[in-house]
Design goal:
The complex is a heterotrimer of chains A (about 45), B (about 70) and C (about 725). Chain A is mainly alpha-helical and about 45 residues long. Chain A has one domain. Chain A has one helix and no strands. The longest helix of chain A has 25 residues. A five-stranded antiparallel sheet of chain B has the order 4-3-2-1-5. Chain B is an alpha+beta fold and about 70 residues long. Chain C is of the alpha/beta class. Among the domains of chain C are: about 160 residues, 3-Layer(aba) Sandwich (Rossmann fold); about 80 residues, Helix Hairpins. Helix content of chain C is about 60%, strand content about 10%. Chain C has 31 helices and 14 strands. In chain C, strands 2-3-4-1-5-6-8 form a seven-stranded mixed sheet, with helices on both faces. In chain C, strands 7-9 form a two-stranded antiparallel sheet. Chain C has a two-stranded antiparallel sheet with strand order 10-11. Chain C is elongated. Chain C starts with a strand and ends in a 7-residue tail after the last helix. Classes of the chains: A mainly alpha (about 45), B alpha+beta (about 70), C alpha/beta (about 725). Chains in contact: A-C, B-C. At the A-C interface, helix 1 of A face helix 1, strand 2, helix 15, helix 16 and helix 19 of C.
C-alpha cells in the first residue's frame, strides 16, 4: 500500500516537472539559464 | 603629419581631420572624435595597447593602430 | 490598438534599468528575425495597452553594425508611436549625437535625461528648459536606478503617442549642407512621406547603400555630392557627422554648466589605480584569485561539506549548537518511507537514485551562489570594460580582442550568459571564435566535477582546481591561435573602439537579485532535468536482462545501462577511462554537467554509504588511475557543453553548420587533449611505451605544428 502511494506521488512529481519544462519552453523563456534575461546583468545588449 | 598616435600621455591635441574609410572611420566619428575636437590622452593599457582618451567628457579606448587615422595638431 | 513606445539610447545609458523598471516582469525576450540581435518587448506596468520596445543600445543610426541596422529598420518600417530617448546626463554630448538622428525620423520623441543625481553630485547643471527649446522636444530628468521621474517620462511618451504629432527636427545643419539637403528632398519627391524626407535626404547624402536599396527610385544626387565634397574638402559622411557635433557643441555651451573643468571624477580616480600601468595586471589577478578562492576553496568548500555530509548526509547541528541536531534529508526520507511501508526497490529509486543524484549536485549550491554574487558585482560595477581594455593586447596576439575576455569571465559562472555576452563583439569571425571557445572555461556546473576528481583521486590537492582553469584558458588561447591560422577565421583584426563607462556602485539588492536569479536556475535545473536524469539512470542501472527476461539485477554490471555504456565505453579506452560507468557519466554530462557527479553518485552508491562522505568516493578512486582521472576531468571540461549552453551556441551562431563545427571542434579537442594527457602521463609513470603513447606524441606534434606554423595572409 505504501509502495503504491509513494509510486503515485513520484509519478505526479515527474508529470509536474515535465509539464513545467514544456511550459517554460513555450513561454519563450527557453533560455534555460534562468528563464529570465532580466537579471543576466543586462549583458544581452550592451 | 602628426597623428593621435604621436601624442603622449597627459597631452591634449586638437583633431584636424580623419583619414581612412568605411566603418572604422565612421565609428570613430560617431564616438565624438571629429574635426576641431579636443582629445586628451589619459593613459596607456598595462601591456602597451590600447590607449584611453578623454573626448567630449567621457572615456574611450582606442587601439594605437586605429589612432593613426586621426590627424591632430 | 496598443500604443507602442520605443526605448532608444546609447549603451550604458541605463536603458535596461529603465526598461526593467517600467515593465517589471512583464517582459518577453527573443531575437529579431534572422539575426542574433536581442528583441525585448514589455508591457508598461499598470497600463494594459502600452507596449514598450527596448531597442539595442546604439551610438548612431549608421549602416555598419547589425544593431544599428536592426534598430533603424524597426523605426523606419514599424513606426512606433513614440520614442523615449534615454540620454546619459554625465555624457551628454555623445548621447545627443544619437538624439539628433532619432528626431529626424518623423516620430514623436521625448528625451529622458538619466543619472541626473550623478550630474548634480558633480556640481554640474543641465538647463532642461533651454535644452528642450533648442532641441524641439520635451526633456524630463530621471534616475532609472532610483526610479525617480520614470513614470512621468512614460506618461509623457504616451501623451505624445496619442497626439500623433511628429516632432519637427529643429536642429539645423550648416547653411551649405542645409541647402543641399533641401535640394535632395525635392529630388526625392513624393515616394517618401514628408516627415521622413529629411532622414532619407541625409542618408542619401551620406551614400548610405542600405537606404538606397530601400527606395523605389533613387534620385541621382552625384552632382550635389561632388559639389559639397569639393566645397568642404571632406567626404559627405564626415561632413554630416561634423555638422551634427558642431550643432551639439553650440547647444551644450548654452544648456550645460560644468562646474569642475578638468577635475578627476571618482571614476577616473579609481581607474588611476585599477588600470594603472604597473598595478592593473596584479590587481586583476588578485581579484580573480579572491573571487575563486573565496567562492570555491574556502567558504565554498565549508558550505559544500556541510551540504554533502550534513543536509544530504547524516545530519547537522543547527547554527553549530551541539544540542540541536537536524537529521539529513536521506535519513528523514528513509524514516518516512519505512513508516508507510514502501517497498525496498522504490525506496532504492528515491534514496539511491533521486536523492543521491540530486543531493550530490545541490551540495554545490553554496559555492555557486557566492561565485554568482561576485561575478554579478564585477559586471554591474563596470569593471568588465576595464578587463577588456587591459587584456586586449594579449587577445589580439591570438586573433581575438579584449572584448572576447568578458564572455569567458561570465562563462566561469554559467556558460549561457557568457555565450550571449559575445554579442558585443562586432566582427563576425571573432564573435564565432569567441562563442566556440567560451565554454572551455569551467562553468559553475563543472565545479562539482573538479571537486570530485580533486577530492576522490587527488585527495584534495590544492593544485587541481586552479589547473582546471589553467587548462581552460590554455585551450582558449591555443584554439584562438590555431583557428586564426585557418582559412575560415583568418582576416584583419577587428577595430577596438570601446567606451569605458563610469564605475558605479551596484546596489546590494541588484547583486543579490542577480545571484539569486542564477542560483535559482541552478536549483531549478537540479529539480527538473537532473532529477529526471537520475531516475533514468537509476532504472537503467538496476534493471537488466538476466536469463532472458527483464528484472532487477543484483550486479549492476548486467544492467541495461551497463550494456549501453559498454558499447560506447571503448571509445574512451585510449583516454584511460574505458569503463561503462565513466562513459555513462560523461554522456549524461551532456544534458547538464552536474549530471556527471550526480550519475557517479548513483553508480558508486553515494546514497548507501552516508557514514563517511569521503568513503564513497574511495570506490571511485579504485576505478581509475590518477592519469585516467585527470584525463576524464579534462575531457569533461573541454567537450561540448550542456544542452542549455549548446542551445545558446546554436542561437548565437544562427547557423546549423557553424553549430556543428563548434560542437565538433570542442569535442574533438577534448578527445585529443585528454588522450595525450593520459598516454603521456601513463608513459612517464609506468614507462610502458605502447601504441597509445605513440599516437599521443603524433597528436602533440600535430597540435604544436598548428599552433606554431607561420601563416601568411594573402592580401
Amino acid at each position: 500500500m505504501g509502495t503504491a502511494i509513494t509510486g503515485i506521488v513520484i509519478l505526479i512529481i515527474i508529470a509536474l516537472i515535465i509539464s513545467s519544462m514544456v511550459k517554460s519552453k513555450r513561454n519563450g523563456k527557453s533560455i534555460q539559464c534562468g528563464n529570465d534575461c532580466k537579471h543576466c546583468g543586462g549583458h544581452c545588449n550592451h | 603629419m602628426k597623428t593621435l598616435r604621436d601624442i603622449k600621455c597627459g597631452e591634449t591635441a586638437k583633431v584636424i581631420r580623419l583619414n581612412g574609410v568605411g566603418a572604422i572611420k565612421r565609428r570613430i566619428m560617431d564616438m565624438g572624435i571629429t574635426k576641431g575636437t579636443d582629445v586628451f590622452v589619459r593613459k596607456v593599457a598595462p601591456l602597451g595597447d590600447p590607449i584611453e582618451v578623454t573626448v567630449r567628457g567621457y572615456e574611450l579606448s582606442l587601439r594605437k593602430a586605429d589612432t593613426e587615422m586621426i590627424e591632430v595638431e | 490598438m496598443s500604443i507602442r513606445i520605443a526605448l532608444a539610447g546609447n549603451p550604458n545609458s541605463g536603458k535596461t534599468t529603465l526598461f526593467n523598471a517600467l515593465t517589471g516582469s512583464n517582459q518577453f525576450v527573443g531575437n529579431w528575425p534572422g539575426v542574433t540581435v536581442e528583441k525585448k518587448e514589455g508591457r508598461l506596468k499598470n497600463h494594459k495597452d502600452v507596449v514598450i520596445m527596448d531597442l539595442p543600445g546604439i551610438y548612431s543610426l549608421s549602416p555598419y553594425t547589425l544593431e544599428e541596422v536592426v534598430t533603424r529598420n524597426y523605426l523606419m518600417n514599424e513606426r512606433p508611436d513614440a520614442i523615449l530617448n534615454i540620454v546619459d546626463g554625465t555624457n551628454i554630448e555623445r548621447n545627443l549625437y544619437l538624439s539628433t538622428q532619432l528626431m529626424e525620423l518623423g516620430i514623436p520623441v521625448i528625451m529622458a535625461i538619466n543619472m541626473m543625481d550623478a550630474v548634480e553630485k558633480n556640481g554640474d547643471r543641465i538647463h532642461l528648459d533651454k535644452l528642450s527649446k533648442k532641441l524641439g522636444c520635451e526633456v524630463v530628468p530621471i534616475s532609472a536606478l532610483k526610479g525617480t521621474g520614470i513614470i512621468q517620462a512614460a506618461e509623457k511618451a504616451i501623451k505624445l503617442a496619442e497626439e500623433k504629432k511628429a516632432t519637427p527636427a529643429v536642429h539645423s545643419f550648416s547653411p551649405q549642407v542645409d541647402s543641399v539637403l533641401n535640394r535632395i528632398e525635392v529630388k526625392i519627391g513624393s515616394q517618401i512621406p514628408d516627415e521622413q524626407k529629411r532622414f532619407f535626404a541625409i542618408k542619401l547624402l551620406e551614400r548610405d547603400e542600405k537606404i538606397e536599396a530601400q527606395m523605389k527610385q533613387v534620385p541621382d544626387i552625384s552632382a550635389e555630392i561632388e559639389l559639397i565634397e569639393a566645397e568642404m574638402e571632406d567626404d559627405t559622411e564626415s561632413i554630416i557627422t561634423n555638422d551634427r557635433y558642431l550643432y551639439i557643441s553650440s547647444i551644450i555651451k548654452e544648456c550645460y554648466t560644468k562646474k569642475s573643468r578638468g577635475k578627476l571624477s571618482n571614476s577616473d580616480r579609481i581607474d588611476q589605480v585599477i588600470t594603472n600601468r604597473w598595478l592593473a595586471l596584479p590587481i586583476f589577478m588578485a581579484i580573480m584569485f579572491i573571487v575563486y578562492y573565496v567562492s570555491v576553496t574556502s567558504v565554498g568548500t565549508i558550505a559544500t561539506d556541510w551540504a554533502n555530509d550534513g543536509v544530504f548526509g547524516d545530519g547537522w547541528h543547527l547554527f553549530g549548537i551541539e544540542a540541536i541536531w537536524i537529521p539529513g534529508i536521506p535519513v528523514l526520507i528513509e524514516n518516512v518511507l519505512n513508516a508507510i511501508g514502501c517497498a525496498a526497490w522504490l525506496q532504492g529509486l528515491i534514496l539511491d537514485g533521486m536523492v543521491a543524484g540530486v543531493g550530490a549536485v545541490l551540495g554545490f549550491v553554496p559555492q555557486m551562489l557566492i561565485l554568482f554574487a561576485f561575478l554579478a558585482f564585477l559586471e554591474a560595477c563596470g569593471y568588465m570594460a576595464r578587463v577588456a581594455f587591459i587584456m586586449d593586447r594579449i587577445f589580439r596576439k591570438f586573433g581575438l580582442s579584449g572584448k572576447s575576455f568578458i564572455p569567458m569571465l561570465i562563462g566561469s559562472g554559467c556558460g549561457v550568459p557568457g555565450i550571449m555576452a559575445s554579442r558585443t563583439i562586432e566582427n563576425d569571425r571573432d564573435r564565432k571564435m569567441t562563442i566556440m571557445t567560451t565554454t572551455f572555461i569551467p562553468c559553475g556546473a563543472k565545479l562539482p566535477i573538479i571537486a570530485l576528481i580533486a577530492g576522490a583521486i587527488f585527495h584534495g590537492a590544492w593544485w587541481v582546481a586552479p589547473s582546471a582553469y589553467f587548462v581552460g584558458i590554455s585551450a582558449i588561447i591555443c584554439s584562438g591561435i590555431i583557428l586564426k591560422k585557418t582559412k575560415m577565421f583568418a582576416g584583419d583584426t577587428a577595430p577596438f573602439v570601446m567606451e569605458l563607462p563610469s564605475y558605479h556602485m551596484p546596489t546590494l539588492r541588484n547583486i543579490l537579485a542577480s545571484m539569486w536569479e542564477r542560483g535559482l536556475s541552478f536549483i531549478k535545473k537540479a529539480g527538473t532535468i537532473i532529477l529526471l536524469s537520475t531516475i533514468f539512470v537509476w532504472f537503467t542501472e538496476n534493471f537488466g536482462f538476466t536469463n532472458g527476461s527483464i528484472g532487477m539485477v543484483e550486479d549492476m554490471n548486467d544492467s541495461i545501462l551497463a550494456v549501453i555504456g559498454s558499447m560506447l565505453a571503448f571509445l574512451f579506452a585510449p583516454l584511460g577511462w574505458g569503463d561503462w560507468k565513466s562513459a555513462v557519466a560523461a554522456i549524461t554530462g551532456l544534458i547538464a554537467k552536474e549530471n556527471v557527479v550526480g550519475t557517479f553518485g548513483i553508480l558508486f552508491g553515494f546514497g548507501e554509504v552516508t557514514e563517511n562522505g569521503s568513503q564513497i568516493w574511495g570506490s571511485l578512486a579504485g576505478n581509475m588511475t590518477a592519469a585516467a582521472a585527470y584525463s576524464f576531468l579534462v575531457f569533461n571540461l573541454l567537450c561540448a557543453p550542456c544542452f542549455a549552453a549548446m542551445g545558446a551556441i546554436k542561437r548565437e551562431m544562427n547557423n546549423v553548420k557553424w553549430f556543428w563545427i563548434a560542437i565538433g571542434y570542442q569535442t574533438g579537442l577534448a578527445y585529443v587533449v585528454s588522450l595525450c594527457i593520459y598516454q603521456i602521463v601513463t608513459l612517464i609513470t609506468t614507462g610502458n611505451f605502447g601504441i597509445g603513447a605513440l599516437v599521443a606524441f603524433v597528436l602533440v606534434a600535430g597540435l604544436c605544428y598548428l599552433i606554431f606554423r607561420p601563416y601568411k595572409q594573402n592580401q
